[in-house]
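Entry 14. Two folds queued back to back today. First construct below, sequence then structure tokens.
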Amino acid sequence: MAAAFNINVKDPMPLYAQLERAIRFAIATGRLAIGAQLPTVRQMAVDLRINANTVAKVYAELERAGVVETRRGVGTFVLEQPLVAVASSARRKSEREKELRALTERFLAEAIALGFSPEEVLERLAGQVRKGV
């Protein structure tokens, strides 16, 4: 399961942020279903070849955010997200839209600065979404 998460040690984004993003993406795309058990901290660290403290930090942050639940002696599981209630709040929705707009603008600006056309970026993004990565 951990092999399904893409972690790139050469990426300037911190490893914990990459892992958190990968887990959230897997949940959002259905690769990790509600109630699914995540690998143990130790197993995830071994599979990804990263420090176990990094994985523990990510799991703890996801638990604080209400994304996963750790059951002592049993494991860490994906929680059902109360997205309907959160998304129905106009304030929260506008905050999320604002964050997505800013993220999109930064990403596109960086891609264009690297010489990619908007069409190439869109094609790559569509391919990544289809792959579930």
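Second construct, same run, same settings:
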Amino acid sequence: MTSADLQKLVGQKPFVPLRLYVSDGTVHEIRSRELIWVGTGMAVLVVPIPDQGNADKPLIERTIHIDLRHIVKVETEAAQPSP
């Protein structure tokens, strides 16, 4: 996957949640645009501290750095149908 490909997915408006599959078998759920930073050749995933009070500005528990060459598949959530 290229930086441009991932940036295009992350930049969709409105944001569509992503699921990243990595070559080591891990799967990462991206629920917000603010939780992924796309760089040249890599992505940084931000893992917020769970169950904190201020969801608008989450505190960071840790980050995960992924070489884009190791992203083997990306899934997006289907849009929910209108009632």
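Quick look at the second one. The longest strand covers residues 60-67. Residues 3-76 form a domain with the SH3 type barrels. fold (CATH 2.30.30).
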